[in-house]
Amino acid sequence: MTKNITKYSLSLLASANDGVQAQILFSNETAFFVGRIDFYKGTELPKSYLWHPTNANDESQTYLVLAMSHSVLGNVADLLRNEGPWILELSPSTPPPFFGASTQGYGGKLKTVGTEKTGEGDFNFSLLL
Fold first, then answer.
1. How far apart are the first and last CA of the chain?
2. What are the φ/ψ torsions at residue 111 (nearest 5 degrees)?
3. Which of 75, 70, 52, 54 lies closest to 1 in space, CA to CA?
4. Residue 44 CB contacts under 8 Å (≥ 6 apart), including other chains
5. What is the pLDDT of residues 21-69, one digit of tens each?
6. Which of 129, 64, 57, 65 is nearest to 97 (CA)?
7. In this predicted structure, what is the pLDDT of residue 112?
8. pTM of this prediction?
9. Between β-strands 2-5 and 86-92, what pairing exists: parallel, antiparallel or unpaired?
10. Counting beta carbons within 10 angstroms of the beta carbon of residue 91, is it exposed (0 to 12), middle (13 to 18) or buried (19 or more)?
11. Among the four residues 61, 66, 70, 115, which has the most C-beta atoms within 10 Å?
């Protein structure tokens, strides 16, 4: 499943020693919320998931939730500011119909739409490693 994203907001969580340290929330021109990335510290990363709290079989009410390490937060924020447009992508672990409030996912991605020209920016991908 993919969601186009055109807007984001970044939240840093206060008084959090371990667990979720920050979140980036995503929206687009037609939906106030389409998904988020949770950035974790001091704990094993949980599985990314599709969140469908009100209607498990309505794609417009299914949100993508990715889990990433807090160590890449600055790089992800930099990419969002300087590249784009973006798509959030996550495949469900089980085929529809979905049941309950969430479905485990795999292969989560934040990726650009189309292609980028080479040499256009100065982002240092080695910082992600």
1. 27
2. -140, 155
3. 52
4. none
5. 999 999 999 999 999 999 999 999 999 999 999 988 889 999 999 999 9
6. 57
7. 87
8. 0.86
9. antiparallel
10. middle
11. 66
